[in-house]
Give the backbone structure.
Amino acid sequence: MRLTHLILSNIGPFRGTHIIDMTSPNSATGYAFFAKNSRGKTTIYNAMRWCLFGEARERGKIVNGKRIPGSIRPIVGDGKILMNDSAYEHDDQQEMSVILIAEGKNGSIQVNRSAKSTTKFARTDEQMEVSLDVTIGSKPLVSGKNAQEAIETFFPRGLERFFFIDGESLEEYTEMMESNAIEGLQDEVNAVLGIPALVKGSDDLNFLHQTLKSKIDKTSKALKQSTSARDDLIAQKRVMQEKMATVSKKQNDLTTVVGKLDDTLEKMNANKELAPLLEELKSLETQITLKQDNLVEAAKDKVSESTKAWKVLLWSRASAFHSELTAQKQNADDCERIIQSTKVEILNIEESINVFKGICETCHQPLQNIEKHKSKLQNDLNERQSILARLESSVNHSPDDLIIALGELQKLKPQPDWKERILKSEQKWKRMCNDLESLNEQKININSKVSEEAKSSAGELGELKGRQEVMVHRRQQELREARKDVDFAELELKRLERLSGNTSQDKESLLLNNIIGKLQVAIRDTIASYREKARSEVEKCASEVFVKLNNSPEVYTGIKVDKNFRTQIRNSKGGFERSPSSGLTSMMTISVIDALRQVSGIDAPVFLDTPARSLDEEHKKDLLDYFWQSEGHQFLIFAHSGEYNVEETVREHKGMLAKAWTLTYPRDHSSCYLESCLSTDVFYDSSSKKYSCQSCQHEWNTETKETIVSEVKL
Amino acid sequence: MSDEEIKKGSVGISKSSHELLVSLVFNEDSLSEDRPFESIVEAFRFAFAVGYQKNKSNGDTSRTVTVAPRQFVVTDYLELLRSEINNSNKSLGGLISEYAEGGCEILLRAQSSQVSILSLLD
């Protein structure tokens, strides 16, 4: 593919439309844009990237061998933008476009990408409508996604790095090539080698393989569980058989015991006539035992009550004595009272006699017969003293003695109900004795009717029956337990039968998985083989380029590219250059990039921005000498004034240089820059800062930052 | 007669009466037999009460078996028997023993005639 025209419109410092005609009368490969900084070199470089791939990125960074891509430069917005500032700020409709026209092996190629604001003033790229149209040869025009896919056919995006080479980023390439990790260049290397399709196929196969493997594993697990369940099922069937044998044995045991019990009952039936008597005897014995217990209680009760009986007996006689003493006490109290009152009367009479004065105590009149009255008082006194003496002699016991005696007697007095309680306990005991005697008589009576032998036989049978009944009960219990075990075993058996159901491995899946595995191995081997072949080619090609590019080919004999595409400079001693200069390293990097480009087989121009940044004069010349040939791929450099001198470069590479341009601002010109004029008769108005050509009247403002593209005459 | 002048004396009983009283003491192995007393002292006390109630005493029998004084306190019955003692010049224990001996005769008769001992309360 050979570029013929580049048409820039309102991009970067290119205000309005600029048509850069790259057609050349010869087939030389050299193309050059010379300019000072900020004049639009990188803009052209970015404009072509944007036109082809829809974005122009800032320079990226390398961190620990990994490439951190630069940010996408926006079309519009704040900061650095792709669109021309003046067009963005002043035009009614913000619009930018790049048209790239080339000649390819399939005919003429035209790529037209434009961006137009969808609002009055677009502030972000979302408000810009980007359109892409591509025509290739006689094929109809394609747009949008199809147009992008069409570009991929002649300029794969994955190889952008090897055709758009940023000289200022050569160190980035170098670092990636020298790094232990090839992650940074891997995508590009793969793209150059045409591996992506294979790798993509491999990824798809991996996905298929994983899906199938998961399915197979799942089935295998189920199969394993099923197999395990089948083993358990067999074991469980044996357990089931054992349990059923146990049930059968228990059933037989029960039948045997029941049979024995039936025999015993039959024998007992033979002595049926004795049964009521034996039953009665048994009942009597039970009753006697009960009565004996009752009798013990009654006898003890009687003994307990009897401890009070002596008081009842004593009191039946002593109560009369107690009454007598009580009466004596009453008499003694009465007598004591009369004695006391008589003593008082005696004292009163004695006092009356002693103090008598002949005055009547009642009427207080003088008494007529005093002696008679005195004699009467004396008689009263005598009478009282006689009564007192008689009373005192009649008292045998003092009241205090009687109180003590009554108290002592009172201790012997029984409670009123004692006699009744004692006699009741006596009667109860007697009744118990009689009942027991009666029961014993009945027992004797029955015993007399039943022989000891019969009794013994019946007793033994009864005991046997009891034992056998217990045994039957036990056997029934055991049988129930055994049946329960069988039920549980049966449930487990059913569960295992379910688990061991029809699980089988899908043969097709296994086959497919096997095929995919083989394909994966084949792809891996193919990639490895292809990689190795490509590596060898790249190494050979890069070495050839490097020998041409470096200025000491006799010392630096080639480039070693290892399997991870890490590079080293070979020297003539058969070793590797440990500390190459930055220029030499740049040469090595450019050599490898060009080798990769050549191996890729893509027919496209190479764009090299700031190509000689870290190169010395000799290397700069060698670089152009190598890339600029009389025929072959176009090689476009975007050089600033410090890298290459325009006249010198043109002179030295005459014949190899197809076309060259300078990019300038109006202020860079102090003479008329129009090709048709080029007059030096100009006037500068310092107030308006404008030059005006006195010959053609062309005016240019030195403050305007709009690039002027001027073709260099070769 | 004051308390100081009353002789307490000891209580005792004849061997035959003692045997009778022993036969009246409770025994779990002879529940059907009429054995209403829990000890010989209790049986003696009952015999004394029977003798006193029936006013039956026997002073001739020699008393060969004594009754433990700690378990049978004669002074408990002093006021009951004081006048008799005052009139008879007997000791308190002696009088009680005579009544007990008399009571035993009644008990023996009751026992012999199949009459229960406690029916003597009636």
Notes: The interface with chain A takes residues 26, 28, 31-32, 35-38, 42, 45-46, 48-50, 52-53, 55, 76-80, 82, 116, 118-122 of chain B (CB under 8 Å).
